[in-house]
Amino acid sequence: MKEYTENIHEVVDRIVSRRGHSADAVIPILQDIQHEFNHLPEEALKYASQITEISEAGIEGVASFYSQFRRKITGEHIISVCTGTACHVKGSNLVYDALCREMKLKDNETTDAAGVFTIEKVACLGCCTLAPVVRIDTVTYGHVMPENAGDILVDFLKRGKQLVKAPANAAPSSALKGEIRIGLGSCCIASGSAAVKAELEKTVAEAGLQVEVKQVGCVGICNQVPILEIVKPGEDTAFYAHIKPEEVKQVVLSHFRPEGTYRRIRSGVVNLFENLMADEAPRSVQKYMFEQRDTPLSLFLSPQVNIATENRGIISPCDISEYRKAGGFEALATCLKSMNPQQVIDEIKASGLRGRGGAGFPTGRKWQLVHDQAEGEKYIICNGDEGDPGAFMDRMLLESYPYRIIEGMLIAAHAVGAAKGLFYIRAEYPLAVMRITEAIQVCRAEGLLGENIMESGFSFDVKIFEGAGAFVCGEETALIASVEGQRGIPRLRPPYPAVHGIYGKPTLINNTETFSLISWIIRKGSSAFAGIGSERSKGTKVFALAGKVKRGGLIEVPMGISIRRIVEELGGGIAGDKQFKAVQIGGPSGGCIPASLADMPVDYEALSEAGAMMGSGGLIVLDESDCMVDIAHYFLSFTQNQSCGQCTFCRIGTRRMLELLEKIRSGEGVAEDIDKLEHLARSTHAGSLCGLGKTAPNPVLSTLRYFRHEYEAHINGHCPAGKCAPLIQYSITDECIGCTKCAQRCPSDAITYKPYEVHSIEQEKCIKCDICRQVCPVEAVKVI
Amino acid sequence: MKLRIDHREVEAEEGMTIMQAAALLDICLPTLCYRKGIAHHPSCMVCVVRDVDTGRLLPACAYPVREGMNIQTHSREIHDARREALELLLSDHVGDCEAPCRRSCPAFMNIPEMNRLISSGQFTEALQLVREEIALPLILGYICPAPCEKACHRSSIDGAVSICLLKRFTADDISRLYSGLLPSIERSGKRVAIIGTGPSGLSAAFYLLRRGHLAVLFDRHPEAGGLLRYHITEDKLPRKALASEIEVIRLMGAEFRMNTLITKDFFDQVLLHEYDAVIIATGREEKQITEDFGLERDEHGLKVSRTTLEAHTRQPEAGTWNPEPGSHGSRVTGHGIFACGNILHKRQMAVRSVAQGKAAALSAVHYLKTGKPGSACHLFNSSFGRLNEAEYGEYLKESGPASRLAPAKGFMGGFTEAEAMKEAARCMNCDCRKLSSCKLRIFASEYQAQQKKFAGPNRKLITKSVQHEFVIYEAEKCIKCGICVEITRAEGELKGLTYVGRGFDVRINVPLGGTLREALTRTGKKVTEACPTGALAFKIGNHE
Description:
heterodimer; A: alpha/beta; B: alpha/beta; Ubiquitin-like (UB roll); six-stranded mixed sheet; five-stranded mixed sheet
């Protein structure tokens, strides 16, 4: 025990010497302690308090506030079940339950008896197009179904620690005959692109090909990943979707060697268009030519306008020379050499750019406010605390275009007179942190960060702050509290951060996407930007399109585009012959817009008037099998869980609303409960202190507005979508062929069966896990 | 800078909050979470006011004033928002204001305080306290069915506290019984006639006399006591006890006119003319009287208008709470006539009649003073219902386990001093220790908040932290304002208090498994006084 304590002290000493003794170091210190010990041992916290300026109260307050921190030791491996919106609508709860059964957990347990696995729900892993997603340590599994949930545990343990290590690419750049690009965004990696890349490099090396294997950022075509792009002079660019490591060799050799296997694959292309539904298509190689019209790829890509995602899928994220070649840092040079701060601000104002974090405050005006504060210490923060459980654009931008964001921040810093910047990035985005870290180092080396940038006399440097798991920290005052080493509690505005921000200094906080648009605006001019979009909303918006569409992914579309075009053209319509019901836009702060209003343009005001919100850009498409009461419940349980707990209406009001929704969802509601819910939703909106509380009722209010009849149906004991477990029953129809498959897989032995005879379900035993329905080969299991 | 609050212009300083500006106009806004001189995090939202220009509700305690602002502090909308904030807080505030025993006592006797006085040997003080609400403790100590004991939280653990016998004990000593009867106040010279000398009539006389009025009791029987004498047998109620408490009333200066049947003429010509008020306490049997006196009856008894009843059953001087409108005495006409006892209702518990006698007397007292009915002070009362088994241990922390004590001398013999002290110490002190200073209660009363409006399906389980020398912490009463956290921080407590957790489950606690004693080494008094609810309270000396 003494040894253990000494060890703890040693480790904490080391961490503190690295992170510093000041009170604002508390979060990084705790993160490091947890990294070392897998949890936060009390002894470590006490000791940390003794040797730093951080009080025990401060440590406890912070450690218990952020969901990243654990006080108990976990199993060897952590299973994170994503409960983001896209995963939710595709049944992540059933997956979670199935995994718990596999782990033989009793009520409220999260670690299995042997201490191998600990299971937890996480808000969003940002791989919405692969929903439902489960991550075990660093390995991500997509499309996990309750039925195969056990398999991933087996698979994970089989992998052991053998991670694919990529051999170096030896080809000298002068002799290159072509380029093979592979996306290495988090989604791509989750879908197996790292293994593909390794295989690719192996193939290239073994065959001695003069080809550059290039990792690029997120391609956005998440529905087709892993995706390989082959660029060869004199040939049309070819894409290979859903490629597997074992298929790499064939594909590569088909391009860089005459004939052979190439033809064989090509012959398969013809009938691909019919079965391209991202989540239903068999996992085999699919190839499209870039110039080909009406391929799912061109439909997905052509309506898009790439500003934040300029050069998507072409440039390598951390390669600064490529970024420069594509016009990178030209805008910064222009600003530093020929524009004074006010001119820059005027240009941004003229562009009509509004904050992409959700509320749409005019960016130029925000900059002006900070600029107008007395000279002195000022800060810039890039808000990358993307917490919306159905959005991953910030992650993609951070991972794929780190230099563009840094350039945007540099321009902003010049405009407002700030010398210090901060990236606030969610802890759940390790790849983004890695890429930004690398990009910052490169920029420092190139003189783009630090003193006297581009010999202009302008100095600016930037640090990274990793969030610790609190949705509310996306709110700017909570974010500031968090940076200062406090609990992420929003405070009343005014004063606004522009006046009174970090450590009381004027602070400009913009969303990641906002910063990504800046350099383009300067380079191409404000009028070019203002020429895109609608009357009140200019430029483009990046959305994470997911849910029940055929093609999900990251899209950047001009403002003013209709929701219907996004769903039907880009998304390819609803998967599986179901009816398009609604889109959920804006995440937990947004609302549901029914299919009947889908011609509405994507525009800040139009969405707000319809009861939704631009939000950060999650766009989840719902079909007839989605229950709107369940959706409202889902979002409210998210915000309720993420409430900081400060003000009465948010802390208690959201909880009481959630309880009412639970009551309604379980069929125990009475008619007055709907009115009570609506009333409380309005009070919570009016009485909450910050944006989280004020917008938390939106999913409830918007579903009440457009789908009140579904609430009423629940009161009458009926869930029209067949989703709410207490109101549905599983039953087996006469179409049953008596194959016994369902009975074998049923975890609760609820199916009575005789081979070759119609089976039946004992309702008392049924736990509604949905496995029978999934395994039935003839769709004889119905939900009634 | 200039702004308008409720249509009045005020000159405020830059940096002031709306609340501070309103104070310049003597507009006092309600707040729970704000405390002068302590770093403030607006949270309770009870202070909301309306920005007329934007229509938004703003927390006045923290929102800075702005030139030209136009603020409204009173409206239906604002009132509702404040009430709802309170109701949400109450839905998550688990605790009793008044103890369940006191709430279920028709006479609203302050039982926990009586128990505390008895257990510390302050028997005279205990009797004085009992008499604040009950005029006949000795009599009721024999015959009361003790609804309080059924409500006692301890009844589900190891037997209710023997409240009724403890109450009898306070009066079971002749010298104590006859001492301290009349407070030294000026006699008013006003005369009140009381018809009937049963429990309600005697009780009415007691409270009239205590407040300086003369009580003249009429009864057609030769001896006073009514049902107590002519219905209850001696083996249940010793005649000595009855006589002693009638003697108390007599010693206080009451006049008894026995063998006097009240006729209509006597009522109209003597009582209504020669007396300043009349209290009818004739009991159920006297059916004739209502017709004789021109009063109406219904199936329950004497007919009284509900609205009048509401307005006149309050007890401004004595209790602060009215458990059950209608159970108290009532003025029945506009001529200073009041009624109490069985004439109002079918046969009822003696303690209810005693309670009604008190209420009728207090109504009459107010009438004599002002010529108008008494005014209300209907205080909010939080109650969480039954104890959960998991909470038994928490509730026993202060009193320890001990089963209900039976007096060695038997029921009729009653408790000895030692027995009484021991039994009284079993009281778990379920009443809140900030009964009259709890701001949540005060505002809940003012805004007529309903505790159950937003009640969730499950309540939190009550915890009691008692290891601090003089502070008790009941976390489930906390409204998370953080005032205590800020005080311990500002005063440099090594451990202090902190928020633990987030959202709905956030709690104030001692960091890293420390104890309350370690947390509050020198701020115990300060945080306890500053806590706006009963979450942090002084263990004793409370019960203000």
